[in-house]
Fold this sequence. Notes:
79% helix, mainly alpha, Growth Hormone, Chain: A, globular
Amino acid sequence: MMERWKKNLLLLWISQILVVIGYAAALPFIPLFISERYGITDDRTLGLIVSWFHFVSTGSFAVMAPIWGRLADRYGRKLMLLRACFMDAIIFPLMVYAPNMTVLFILRILASMFTGTTSAAQPLIVSGTPKERHGFALGLLSTALWSGNMLGYLFGGLIVNYFGFTAAFMFCGGAYLLSGIIVLFVHEDFKPVARREKQSGDGVFSLGTSVWIVLSLILLLGFIRYFEMPYLPQLAKRIVGEKTAAFWTGNVSAAAALGGVLAGALCGYLADKTSANKIILPALVLGCAAVLWQAYATSIASLIVARFFAYLAVGGIGPIFLTLITKITAKEKQGLVFGLNTTAENTGIMLSTLFSGGVIYYAGVRGVYTISALLYLLFIPYVIFANTKIKHKP
């Protein structure tokens, strides 16, 4: 009979694949949706609008993530995961009926406020998994995210191309609904922490310097990785034209997700075996080269190959940082820290959308990719410095 932690891991792996498939089938195509639905044709203006669209969504997510993390420590991680799945199953399909961009932005903010499936699934997996298998479990969860992205991009590109945006957003809501149903069968041995008077050892200020250093790494990684991500549909449209942009955006993104699947599996395994620097530093150099390759790609085949290698390089860095967090955080505070992890990542993304929006407005789409490549190189000295300051004990 399968051990309970393995059964939970399998169920959560499937549920997260479904969530990401749904999300990737609709939301990455938002630049094309805004352009078609609201008549925004100027490339730079569209890029600026897209950057603000992602800014408001990541901002509301970053604010709510630690709140949901604290509630998860008090009421259970499973309940938080169910909340995220079922709320977004309702809100995301409504976005396709937004009569104007103001309503679209409001719905996106609401969706982000109630979302957080990954930040709920991570501590739920960790809480029931033997400590010596945390790297494996989080790396496997990363493969679910990348696999879901790969399938979602493929399905989304086909659905948008042949059936339109309404079908894509309905598909998104259905995937979230099915994911929530699967989570109902996950077993959680949760014992709520008894409420007591607040002491000096409680709260975010008691987490220790090492935790905050890792959170700063996660923030910067979110900033760098997301810098060019929202503008892939515009780069694809520049190469292949508007008619088939959605189809090829899905294919390029699927290639990236395949690279992420391989990176997550490999780095999740290595995270339990070797030091972070031996994995991260070569990955950042390769990531820089691959993103620069995308900046000057002139054919869709070249863009696909470059995108694959970019995500093969940097797709596994996130699980390494998460594994490190589990090693330096007390178990009773992991829900809070995973919530702060999500806040850190989304704060980085939020800041990234502001800066990249300015870059695309003044330097164009290829300028965004060039700057993104340079950011990977600039990240290397801080990673080396941070690793010398982290104490690898709770």
